[in-house]
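Marked as duplicate of an earlier ticket. Keeping the data here for the record.
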Amino acid sequence: MKPVRTLAAALGEGSLVLDGGLSDQLRAQGCDLSDNLWSARLLADGPQQIEAAHAAYVRAGAQVLITASYQATYEGFARRGVGRDRASELLADSVTLARRAGAEVAREIWVAASVGPYGAMLADGSEYRGRYGLSVRELERFHRPRIETLAAAGPDVLALETVPDTDEAEALLRAAGGCGVPVWLSYTVAGDRTRAGQPLTEAFALAAGEDDVIAVGVNCCDPSDADAAVALAATITGKPVVVYPNSGEEWDAKAKRWAGEGPGAGEGRGEGPRPPAAHPSPFSPDRLHTWQSAGARLLGGCCRVGPDRITEVAAVLDAEREAR
């Protein structure tokens, strides 16, 4: 059902379960995600598949659904011959589909409109490097129209996610300022630094004084990298922490697939393939206690974390609520 509390209010009362990798579930449903738009293509060609994927995560226990707009940009749609008006409709549809998937259950379901980084539009993996050669102002100009369209569609929060460097974080926060919708800011990291190599102390500090930012954290990273990052985000910002790492499996760059998987297994929430962690460690519900103790309040998974793992996350959080 549509929530009666704001997401910020709910986070003040306890932890919530995020969904997992959207494209993992879409692929399990038989969808072809080989296009540069990844899952965003299905906003036009298969919206019922997107709604079904969201519904699978609702059944798994997710309380927050992240929309299929990570890879959806005006520029990306234009390359497919989609005009601006139609692109605006598709961006708004991403929110509607998630909202509809959560409407049939008796618990509150919040919708987070995904705002992916500039590199996601390029579809060349550069969101895991950052430093695109663009200024903060240029990045702000790129992000603002999409943010305004998504905000107008009525999500509960904007997920500024998989951000690789501080320049893009600053641009995203500027573009989202005054849009009337709260945001969370989530970096993709390697160790104690952003993908572009900046210290996370500097990266998290950008959000510390921003009233519109209701959570700060990390996603699309190795679970072991999330351990220290969660505590750091909480200490520096004093805000609830959002954490949704990858499964911890290794990416085979030569074969372009995850270790042990067949061809075509190379994307998660809707993104392109990500680089392997230096020391991969598995996603495990056992880590949830560590993350919660450090300040995490939004917990879920990203690439290669499907509904089965989200069911485990929900079970752990439910058990903790009952034990109180």
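See parent ticket for discussion. Confidence is low (pLDDT under 50) at residues 262-268.
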